[in-house]
Amino acid sequence: MLILAATVSGYVFGAADKYTEPQEARAFGETTVVLGPEHRSWNGWNSGGGETRGDIDRIRIEYTHGPVFEGDDIGSVLVRWRGDDGEGGHLRYVNPNRFSDDTDQAYHDGDVGEFCTGDFGAGERLTIRMVHNRWQTDGKTGRDDVGVRYAESNWNDIDATDGPFFRTDGRYPVEYGGDRPMEPGDTVEIKFYGPEDELLIAETEATATRFDGSPSEINGDDLDCE
Fold it and tell me: Considering all CA atoms of the chain, what is the largest pairwise distance in Å, rounded to the nearest integer?
């Protein structure tokens, strides 16, 4: 599916209320949303027992044409989904530069810790990892304590081909809302916003599919900024 940035179809106002040239088109190639291809290396992810699908949902986006996405110029990345039953939800990754060294985690003691941003250009792949607690009963974000949801975790991550795009060394306090995590068949939109979360820079969409097979274990130490 080819999706162009929403801002390329016309002129936009500049700071002095003058028309400026439209931004260069950004185009995405294949976008996939796969539910459960990976799981956390923390053994509490399946403390409810019996589940073979992983607790990490993964989005992959092929960027085929356009200017470089600079991490510092993207205010947030919004993932939004909805099923035929009308239920859905959304998850927003705010730019880690909005955090400080002492930003508190939402559900855990301690702070977010070191954070970093990067960039990605045409020909690269972006990977978004989203951790849910469907089968988690242990820890501070167990489903019985906070409800079934996408939860803060240091496995939450946006990764480019050559390194992190949005990443924290501690647990990433993502902004979740809605009825439920994603289900197979949901229509999923991924939107990139400017620094104030108002200007839509680019977007793409795909249909969520269920992973069949044995999920891969992802070591949390591999998702640090260093």
Answer: 60
Report the alpha-carbon distance of residue 194 to residue 76 in Å, rounded: 7
Q: Report helix, strand or coil for 62.
A: strand
- Spatial separation of the C-alpha atoms in residues 81 and 89, rounded to whole Å: 6
> Which residue blocks in 29-133 are alpha helix, DSSP H?
none
In angstroms, what CA-CA distances link 65 with 35, 49, 125, 126, 202? 27, 44, 12, 13, 12
pLDDT of residue 115: 80
224 versus 183: the higher-pLDDT residue is 183
Which residue reads 């290396």 in tokens? 41
Rounded to whole angstroms, how far apart are CA atoms 64 and 61?
9
Number of residues assigned to the chain: 226
58 secondary structure, DSSP code: E
Q: What is the spatial distance between Cα 2 and Cα 176, in angstroms, rounded to a whole number?
A: 27
Contact between residue 55 and residue 36 where contact means Cβ atoms under 8 Å apart: yes
Question: In this structure, what DSSP letter does residue 14 have?
Answer: -
* DSSP 8-class letter at 103: P
| Contacts with 150 (C-beta within 8 Å, 6 or more apart), sequence order | 89, 91, 130, 131, 132, 133, 156, 174, 176, 181
Entry pTM: 0.87
Unique residue bearing structure tokens 């993932």:
79
Least confident of 7-21, 42-56, 125-139: 7-21
CA distance linking residue 186 with residue 206, whole number of Å? 8
